[in-house]
Amino acid sequence: MTSSSSRPRRGKFLEALARAERKVFTRPAPKSAKAQVKFLLTRAKGATQALADRLGVSRRTVERYRAGTLTTPQKRLRAALVGETGSERQPQVRAQARHQAATFSGMMVEVTAYFGFTCTGSSDDGRERSITTAISPTCAKQILELQEAGATEEDLHPNVAEAITEL
User: Does pTM surpass 0.85?
Assistant: First the structure.
């Protein structure tokens, strides 16, 4: 039985996959808001309204960041810029890394597990442990296919748990 202290940790698998993908990138991500907006506009083929809708801001705000008149975005916009830039970066490198994980090398997964009993105040009280383990290419392929199909954290959890226990 898991305790409520382990539940906030759950739901981090998609973030871990994104971090693993970022490790294989060959070029650094655009850092400034202006550079990020220019990059995203290039990907959107110059459609400022489409980019504004994705970022949740007005078209004029996108134009101001592109021109450099605005330079420091608020937290929500900063997070949106980083997220969108990360998801659009180097699609061929990302696809190559996913193919390699699904066919040859598998992937390394870091998870937080809860071990022990639920005896509060006892030496047998459960503890959270961070575990890093390799999963096979077949399990990696299944997980990556589910992720590409739009699976949520809850949908992926049983597959990840099965992949971790497989030896």
Answer: no
CB 10 within 8 A of CB 114: no
Indicate the angle between helix axes 75-88 and 48-55, nearest 10 degrees.
120
Interatomic CA distance for residues 86 and 154, integer angstroms = 23
pLDDT tens-digit map of 135-163: 888 888 888 888 888 888 788 888 887 88
- Which sequence spans correspond to the domains of the chain? 7-24+93-165, 33-89
Look at residues 105, 57, 103 and name the one whose alpha carbon lies nearest to residue 84: 57
